Amino acid sequence: xxxxxxxxxxxxxxxxxxxxxxxxxxxxxxxxxxxxxxxxxxxxxxxxxxxxxxxxxxxxxxxxxxxxxxxxxxxxxxxxxxxxxxxxxxxxxxxxxxxxxxxxxxxxxxxxxxxxxxxxxxxxxxxxxx
Length: 130
Prior knowledge:
Elements lengths: L14 H44 L4 H14 L7 H4 E5 L6 E13 L2 E11 L6
Antiparallel strand pairs: 1-2, 2-3
Helix pairs in contact: 1-2
């Protein structure tokens, strides 16, 4: 009879390696769920700001009209907890040549009292919807 006690005949993973793999998969999934929505939201916000900035510059709107336009659009998008003044500042507020600098942060709970803070910053010019 062949003995199964030698280490060379062992096959498969141990219970501890399976448990460790499950922990890694759960933490990676939780990170993905916490980070991905903020990244997608920032992409959509960049696109919205660039489109609205292009339209405001072509219509020769002032900075206050542009802020009102963005606030109205944010309320349509059901993003009630933010306002345009919290998201961006003007780098050029000349009518017809508006340019903005976006700077804000989004906080998502990871677990218990540990939060993930995503900071978003960048210049947005008219027609730079990427």
